[in-house]
Amino acid sequence: MKARGEVLLEMIVDAQGRVDDIWTVESTNPWLERAAITAVEQWRFEPAQNKEGLRCYTMLALEKEFVPRGCGFVPLSAEARQILRAIERGGEGISTARQLDAPLEARVMRAPVYPTGLREKGSAGEALIEFCLDKNGDAELPRIVSATVPEFGYAAAQAVATWLFKKPLRWGKPTVVRMQVPTTFAARG
Q1: 172 in helix, strand or coil?
Q2: Which end of the chain is more exposed for a tag (fewer CB within 10 A), N or C?
Q3: Is-contact 174 135, C-beta < 8 A?
Q4: Over the stretch 92-138, which tens digit does the pLDDT of each residue have?
Q5: How many beta carbons lie within 10 A of that of residue 68, not counting itself?
Q6: Which of 45, 13, 44, 38 is nearest to 112 (CA)?
Q7: Which residues, in sequence order, are bridge partners of residue 55?
Q8: Digit-coded pLDDT (tens) for 51-79
Q9: Are strands 106-108 and 164-165 parallel, antiparallel or unpaired?
Q10: What is this structure's pTM?
Q11: Helices 150-160 and 30-42 meet at what angle, rounded to 10?
Q12: CATH 3.30.2420.10 residue ranges in the chain?
């Protein structure tokens, strides 16, 4: 989907540098708005300081213009480009988790952030994300397979994109692994 639009967000950042609340001031496209909010919810800031040098809450604004360029080019790592070529060749050289010499061992596996826009509803939901681990164990190419609402899919994909594992091995050699992971979001009360 090639979408054009503008989104103006305002947010409160807590004393630890995490986005505590976020809301839309203006938006020309609800899909871009959701994507922008989900991305910003993952950000971490250097905490603001008051006159006494103590950490404090602060309010920020972000204006983003979305302009489609070409065929939707997104910068990819060399590893991600190699994985895409392997997928285009029918998955040649890509393993499944069951084919590995040992179970995957996570180094960094940050949980998704519950979407701010759904806090009022407090609803539960889930998302299924497909991704590949490159030969170094870095998550690449997260894709939303399904989600009860788009915000859960966006949040889960954002989190998966940061995951790191020990090198996956097959027959003693590093390999690319394609996998899916379900993510559950608990109801907020």
Answers
A1: coil
A2: C
A3: yes
A4: 899 999 999 999 999 999 999 888 878 888 889 999 999 999 999 99
A5: 12
A6: 38
A7: 49
A8: 999 999 999 999 988 877 665 556 788 89
A9: antiparallel
A10: 0.71
A11: 40
A12: 78-185
